[in-house]
Amino acid sequence: MTRNVRDTAALLTALAGPDPNDIVDNYHTSPNFTLDYTQYLDVNALRGKRLGVVGGAANMNNTPEGRRAREILQSLGATIIETGVSVSGSVSTPVLNYEFKRDLNKYLEAMTDPRLPVRSLLDIIDYYHNNPDTVPEYGFNVLIDSQLVDLVATRATYETNRNNSIMNARNSIDNALRTHNLDALISFASISSPGAASGYPSINVPIAYDERAALPGPNTNSWNPLFSLCFTGTAFSEANLIAMAYAFEQASMLRKPPGMALREGLRSLISYAEAMDESEKALILSVLDEAKAVNNSNFATQMDMDLAQDKLAAAIKAVQPVPITSLRIDVNVTVTVSRGDVLNFGLLLNEGAVGDNVVWSVTDPSFALVDGADIYILNKTGLIRLIATDPVSGLSHSIQLRIAS
């Protein structure tokens, strides 16, 4: 949300304080609500600190970006502890939907400006339906799901789920900190989800911009170009986290302005397309030429580069299928079926992959016949295994079928 840690400290200083209109505000318990957080910007703040890696040490050991982050932290005097634990805890979708509807309606009802065209979540939904060409559809299903929530009938269930989410997340974070005598938790993959669920602070500092992120295939960062180091602490540890994040940031200075990062990502994607097989490249030539024109323009905006990259990436994916790197049948239990049944199971694959070439088989053909993805159960009872195999990667997954009479 900000360009750097200094801006974050200044923003938090301006925002911090009690809010009488906040239903869950417990800020009166904080000893820090009058602090100027910019006073904690200290380049030596990591000296003597104990930082615990959570979410698996591999995410910091097995990539150049992670190893570089570790080296910087250690050079600044921090001790890195491999906790061997994964911090868990997240807010469930029903809880988010309940609070979204309740809080948004309360906020809009309090607005006094007569020019405001909406006064409720339902008004927003109606506005979208009446203006489909001007309002983007992104996230619209969240509005619908939230509007369907009955705030009265589901209140008890909501409060139970919310309290459980908070306690699970807090216990997970606090136990890790206490067990290893840590000043903060760090993760190469963000641990902000349990931090948000617990109400505890987290801060992410950029480590690197991943040029591979724009490229199709399994060795990408899920099309997310930014690597970040996440610092998470216990309740009211904002000052401590800001200090440590600032020290890391000033020693690394790895952030790139968005325009430069986007141009590098577009340039990498163009290079990838140029190296494609000529028959494949011919199918995307017009899109590739458009992307080159944007990349070579001195007047291209960030939106121009973003749109060009998205368009070229989509074109590449259309002619160059994403390989299967993760494969599971969409059930993970023994399935009871009857003689004469015709079965068809779905697959859970990595994002962008298609399972059209997956081969289905059974351990004993006398119990069932396989035709493509259809499984015909024959006139025998017993147990067999159904297997799905990707012939390219060799990945497979199986489930047990119990054929009853």
Helical proportion, percent range: 40-55%
Count of DSSP-assigned helices: 13
First-residue to last-residue Cα separation: 61 Å
Rg over CA atoms, rounded to whole Å, is: 26 Å
Run of helices and strands: HEHHEHHHHEHEEHHHHHEEEEEEEEE
Strand order of the largest sheet: 2-1-3-5-4
Report the major sheet.
5 strands, mixed
Total number of beta strands:
14
Overall 3D shape: globular
Percent in strands? 15-25%
The CATH first-level class of the largest domain comes to Alpha Beta
Structural class: alpha+beta
The fold-level CATH name of the largest domain is Amidase signature (AS) enzymes
CATH architecture of the largest domain: Alpha-Beta Complex
**CATH homologous superfamily of the largest domain?**
Amidase signature (AS) domain
Q: List segments where confidence is low: pLDDT < 50 over at least 5 consecutive residues.
A: 212-224
What is the number of independent domains?
A: 3
Mean pLDDT: 82
Describe this structure in words.
This protein is α+β, with helices and mostly antiparallel strands and about 400 residues long. It is built from 13 helices and 14 strands. The strands form 4 sheets. The chain has a 5-stranded mixed beta sheet with strand order 2-1-3-5-4, with helices on both faces. The protein has a 4-stranded mixed beta sheet with strand order 7-14-13-10, with no helix packed on it. Strands 8-12-11 form a 3-stranded antiparallel beta sheet, with no helix packed on it. Helix 7 (about 155-180) packs across helix 8 (about 190-200) and helix 12 packs antiparallel against helix 13 (about 300-320). The model is unreliable at about 210-225 (pLDDT under 50).
